[in-house]
Amino acid sequence: MSSVEEYDQLSKEEREARDKADRNREAAEQAALPYSWTQQLGDVDVTVPVPKGTRGRDLSVVIQKKKLSVGLKGKEPILSGELCKDIKIDESTWTLEDQETVLIHLEKQNKQQWWENVLTHHPKIDTTKIQPENSKLSDLDGETRGMVEKMMFDNQQKQMGKPTSDELKKMEALKKFQAAHPELDFSQAKIS
Length: 192
Known about the structure:
By secondary structure, the chain is an alpha+beta fold. The chain has helices at 3-8, 12-31, 142-159, 165-180; strands at residues 36-39, 43-49, 59-64, 67-72, 79-82, 87-97, 101-108. The strands form two sheets. Strands 1-2-7-6 form a four-stranded antiparallel β-sheet, with no helix packed on it. Strands 3-4-5 form a three-stranded antiparallel β-sheet, with no helix packed on it. The two termini are 45 Å apart.
């Protein structure tokens, strides 16, 4: 039996207990990393502590499509490895803040996918449990935004007992056909 099937058979209390234990384990694993990170659907921000007084010229930061490395020049890297997903190099940056923190902004290649981890050899998080912030329609690309607006309109129309956008299109096409063919009798026609 798969773990998904086992999970589905648990009671609500058992699921909540398992979820809490999993979140605690994930938090402990993430806290043990030499950096912290957050993500949105489109980007990942990595925060790497460095010794106080560090200057930009003391750092060795490498950002590549599938690789990230941060460390002090001449020393073992603080973190180094293969990124779990591709990034857009030209839109990814790093800065040194207060001479003690390296802030790395990685722009995701695929902006519709959550990352399980930053580097492939580090512990994974359960991306199915991510609760994203509410986004605004203006955050969406044109096609997605149009689809969401259509769904919102259709839902609103249904709640008011009015026809959806697809039904309105059908009604408009029928009216045009009736106008083009006045000789036909549509009084008994049932259109679905």
